[in-house]
Please model this.
Amino acid sequence: MIDIPVNTAERLMRLYRSKGSKLQLQNSISEMDYSYQLAILAVEDGQDDEVVLAAFYNNFAKLITEKSEDPGYEKTIQALKNLGFSPKILKIIKDVSRDESQSLVKAKFEKWKTLSLEKLNVQTDLSFIKQLTVKYLRAS
Model:
């Protein structure tokens, strides 16, 4: 019997390792490292697991599109919804991505994004993200 949440989480981690490790952002940091560092900053800030996952996956559409421009948060939300992510995680991504949002979490995301573009002394370990992903896909 196939465990769908585990299978989905493994596919997502493979995608981050393959495409996410090659997609370079500012300061020569990969999308994979940037996403992981963003999630770790959320953990260090005491955020709940849903915010941590939203931090990690908020740029997911960049990994599944062939265009070099930013595909936008709507594509990320739709892709994650199709994979079974919870409405709460999708709402967090929407709230932190919209320019007009004034939420406290958005303000924190902006701070974390700035810090994540620096090369932090954090070893990227996707097993932590995989475990959280499985937990929340099972709960959805």
Q: What stands out?
A: The chain has one domain: 4-139. The first helix runs from residue 4 to 22. The chain has a mean pLDDT of 83. The chain is about 70% helix and 0% strand.
